[in-house]
UniProtKB/TrEMBL annotation:
The keyword Signal is annotated on this UniProt entry: yes
Leader sequence segment: 1-21
A Pfam family that the UniProt record links to this protein: DUF2388
InterPro entries: CHP02448
Source organism of this protein record: Pseudomonas fakonensis
Name of the protein described by the UniProt record: DUF2388 domain-containing protein
Keywords: Signal
Amino acid sequence: MPRYHLIGAALLLSLAGAAQATSFVVTTDAVVRAGAASTDATSDVTSSFRDDKIVQAARDDAASFVGSEGAIRGASLESAFLHIRQQLPALQASDAQLARAILVL
């Protein structure tokens, strides 16, 4: 009987290892895709707004926005979003992507 317990334990451990590897791959893929999307927005915003006072003033609000996953939206950040979207109407970026781009400046 102890032999069956050892085989069962080995089987459970191997399945757990496979599940962890799969979740790691899925998480990594999601992070890479999100990074690529925000890189596009970041390159457009950073090249245009590096010295913009409205955008620079929103850095603290952008940090709060990113840190709270969008729950905290400061007035300076809202103003910067509006300003950026007026200056670059063709830019297709989410608020989260813009906030990350502002932090990169």
